[in-house]
Design brief:
The complex is a heterodimer of chains A (about 240) and B (about 475).
Chain A lengths: L1 E10 L2 E11 L4 E5 L6 H8 L7 E6 L2 E2 L4 H6 L1 E4 L11 H11 L6 H10 L16 H14 L4 E5 L7 H16 L3 E5 L3 H7 L2 E6 L2 E6 L6 H15 L1
Helix pairs in contact in A: 3-4, 3-5, 6-7
Chain B lengths: L1 H16 L2 H52 L15 H7 L3 E4 L18 E3 L14 H4 L2 H6 L4 H17 L4 H6 L2 H7 L3 H30 L2 H4 L1 H27 L4 H30 L5 H17 L3 H9 L13 H39 L6 H13 L3 H28 L5 H6 L5 E3 L7 H32 L3
Parallel strand pairs in B: 1-3
Antiparallel strand pairs in B: 1-2
Helix pairs in contact in B: 1-9, 2-6, 2-9, 6-9, 6-11, 6-12, 6-16, 9-11, 11-12, 11-16, 11-19, 13-15, 15-17, 16-19
The chains are: A alpha/beta (about 240), B mainly alpha (about 475).
Chain lengths: ~240, ~475
């Protein structure tokens, strides 16, 4: 479970989050929508323990992130907007390295399978990632985060740089992770993917949760209309 | 923890193997070390060869003279002016040298030993020469004097930190530059353990390379066989120095900057501790207590010697007899040759006193200089370390000062013996001739490392570790406040 209670965070005079409360249950995918600067990335960084909240609590799988950030992070998978990898290692070596940092050990076959499942072409598995496109790096990042089998997964605009096919595969993968029992929080601008993979969607604006939507009750176009309307009323 | 360690070891191996710059740096470091060892071994071999030649020359002259005693002749048939029973010839043929043998580790830290004296003639009639360099060619070569010796101590003290810099500058900072740090943090159970392991491995790699050079040097020069305990201390001091630089660089990395900033800070530390501070200390101390070089002293003393020898003996007669109560002026008028020899001996004694006086002044000044340099030891780790290695190798200035004193003592003993024989005014017997050899002075030196040097190094490491901890803590607080990793 992912849980934030009345979390506030400011950067100097700028209030990034205002008493945000969110809960993502195991097996659920929560979409975090909002314009640039709405507080999506701040929320994710608070969940990952990169930031300390000014007030409120952040809990991952029952572990308080503020009090025990290392333990909380060990229960969390994280995919940043721009996945960065060691350029002198191949995709498989990157996966092997980051998995072993988490104390996981996979056979070469298992790692190859995970990379292919994440959408990476089999012929790219042994290539150094310095030659990879952004989308290819993103796929390796997804393989790294999901291979951890964490109880919670946070994704910061994971479809950024992915082609439509890969985006769809990512949605399916996120769904699979949630179905396996993980709580998933995904910040995204892609309303179509949000509709495709999320159980719930919340809209953040100016650091406040302004609306919660069940995307399954709406078509993608309707979801977009709701979103745009919310943006217009907020501005 | 074991799994994390293995993972990071594998990662570091991949990083090293796939980085031509790092491989080249390691190769160059090893080559420099091997060249330094070979250069040191060559120098020591020349040093030993010279001492062997001197010993052989001494033995040859003595045996020639002993042969005359056996044949009951006063000298060689073809040089009838030589009379071995006369003090001036006995002094020449009782040939002896005061020498300083190279210590077991000398080849690893030659220091400035090639421009200092490692041997001198022990003679009452040829003047004491404690400041005479063993290698006039080197002393006359200003370029060589300026550049100094490229020995293993230099490689370890000044080049090793550069290698460590090349291997360490992007540890953690590369992750920041590339934006990998957040992934690392969410993947690693203990980011602190990850960081400690990451900075430890380059230190371990450098320590291994230093170990390889130390073993190579120890085997090549025979240091391990000759004195394992000294070699072990030399090696431990070197490892301590690697650790000191590792902690200093870790403190830089703790600040959490990017790789270019970290590299600049590290280069700054290297320039500061290995170039600027030693040079500034030398300049400050040199301006307050200027050094007198051997060539200068030799020239001055040579002029003094000629002034004394060409002067009037009456000037020295009173002080000569007053300082030797057991000797009194001859009651009978000696023959012309004996009188001339006595006058010469009085002048030589006066000159020796002058050399002793100058040597004492120089020693005092050296001690003051060393104390002044040592007072900057807290901020001069490279010099302190290099000096400690030279102490272990027996090539530090204290050893040469002791050797210089040894030369003067040997010459003084020879002179007093010869004065006693001269004032007897009877031919020198074989037993008396042989007694002159005992003034040989084969000095051996080598001291335990200076405790204060080790203390200073350890203190600097502790200060660096303290700063590393403070920087690391403030970095973590800043990151969690701003989110900038």
């Amino acid at each position: 479970m992912i849980e934030t209670q009345e979390v506030s965070k400011s950067y100097g005079a700028t209030q990034a989050l205002h008493a945000l409360s969110l809960t993502v249950n195991p097996g659920e995918v929560l979409g975090l929508l909002g314009p640039n600067g709405a507080g999506k990335t701040t929320t994710i960084h608070l969940l990952a323990g990169f930031l300390q909240p000014d007030s409120g609590s952040v809990v991952i799988d029952g572990v308080d992130v503020v009090k025990n950030p290392d333990e909380a992070r060990s229960r969390l998978g994280y995919i940043p907007e721009n996945v960065a990898l060691y350029p002198f290692l191949s995709a498989m070596e990157n996966l092997q390295h980051f998995s072993s940092l988490a104390g996981l050990k996979f056979s070469r076959e298992e790692m190859a399978k995970k990379l292919v499942t994440s959408g990476l072409a089999p012929e790219a598995i042994h290539r150094r990632v310095s030659t990879f496109s952004k989308g290819m790096r993103q796929k390796v990042g997804i393989a790294i985060a999901t291979s951890k089998n964490a109880k919670a997964l946070v994704l910061d605009e994971p479809a950024s740089g992915l082609d439509p096919h890969a985006s769809h595969e990512l949605s399916m993968l996120v769904r699979q992770v949630a179905d396996a029992g993980a709580a998933v929080l995904m910040a995204t601008h892609d309303l179509f993917r949000a509709k495709e993979s999320c159980d719930r969607v919340v809209i953040l604006q100016g650091g406040k949760l302004v609306q919660e939507i069940d995307p399954r009750s709406l078509s993608a176009n309707d979801l977009e209309k709701v979103y745009l309307k919310q943006m217009e009323s907020g501005s | 923890m074991i799994s994390l360690s293995l993972s990071i070891v594998r990662f570091e191996c991949q990083r090293l193997v796939r980085s031509p710059m790092r491989l080249a740096a390691m190769g160059v470091f090893l080559l420099c070390g091997m060249y330094a060892i070979s250069s040191g071994a060559h120098h020591v071999s020349e040093w030993e060869k010279t001492l062997k030649e001197l010993s052989s020359r001494d033995a040859s002259l003595r045996s020639e003279a002993l042969g005359w005693y056996a044949e009951q002749v006063s000298g060689p048939a073809d040089r009838d002016w030589i009379d071995i029973t006369q003090p001036r010839y006995a002094d020449r043929y009782a040939s002896a040298h005061a020498v300083m043998e190279p210590e077991p580790l000398a080849a690893l830290a030659i220091g400035l030993s090639d421009i200092r004296s490692s041997w001198a003639v022990v003679s009452a009639t040829r003047g004491a020469q404690p400041f005479r360099t063993s290698d006039p060619a080197t002393l006359g070569n200003a370029e060589k004097l300026l550049s100094g010796n490229f020995d293993l101590a230099f490689v370890l003290a000044y080049l090793m930190p550069l290698l460590l810099l090349v291997l360490m500058f992007d540890v953690g900072s590369m992750e920041r530059d590339l934006g990998i740090m957040r992934t690392v943090r969410t993947q690693t159970a203990s980011p602190r353990a990850w960081w400690l392991l990451r900075v430890s491995l380059p230190i371990l790699v450098v320590a291994t390379l230093v170990g390889v050079l130390l073993v190579l040097g120890g085997v090549w020069t025979g240091a391990i066989e000759s004195s394992f305990s000294l070699w072990k201390t030399f090696s431990l001091a070197s490892m301590g120095y690697v650790l000191l630089w590792g902690i200093l660089f870790s403190a830089v990395l703790s600040a959490g900057s990017g790789s270019s900033t970290a590299a600049l800070w590290m280069v700054g530390l290297w320039i500061g501790f290995c170039v600027l501070v030693p040079a500034a200390v030398r300049q400050v101390v040199g301006s307050q207590l200027p050094n007198q070089y051997a060539s200068e002293l030799t020239t001055v003393l040579r002029a003094e010697r000629y002034e004394i020898l060409l002067g009037e003996v009456e000037e020295y007669r009173d002080s000569f007899y007053s300082s030797r109560p057991k000797i009194s002026p001859p009651t009978e008028t000696p023959d012309r040759g004996t009188a001339s020899n006595m006058d010469r001996m009085m002048k030589e004694a006066a000159f020796l006193s002058k050399v002793e006086e100058v040597s004492a002044e120089i020693s005092e000044r050296e001690i003051q200089r060393e104390a002044a340099v040592a007072s900057f030891g807290w901020i001069n780790p490279a010099y302190v370390f290099q000096n400690s290695l030279c102490v272990l190798a027996g090539t530090e200035s204290v050893n040469f000062r002791n050797h210089r004193n040894g030369i003067l003592l040997a010459v003084r003993d020879r002179m007093e013996s010869l004065i006693g024989l001269q004032w007897k005014m009877s031919p020198i017997e074989k037993a008396d001739f042989e007694s002159l050899f005992i003034h040989e002075n084969w000095l051996k030196h080598g001291q335990s490392p200076q405790k204060d040097a080790l203390l200073k190094g350890a203190s600097l490491a502790l200060v660096a570790a303290f700063f590393a901890s403070i920087l690391s803590r403030s970095k973590r607080t800043r990151e969690r406040k701003t989110g900038i990793v």
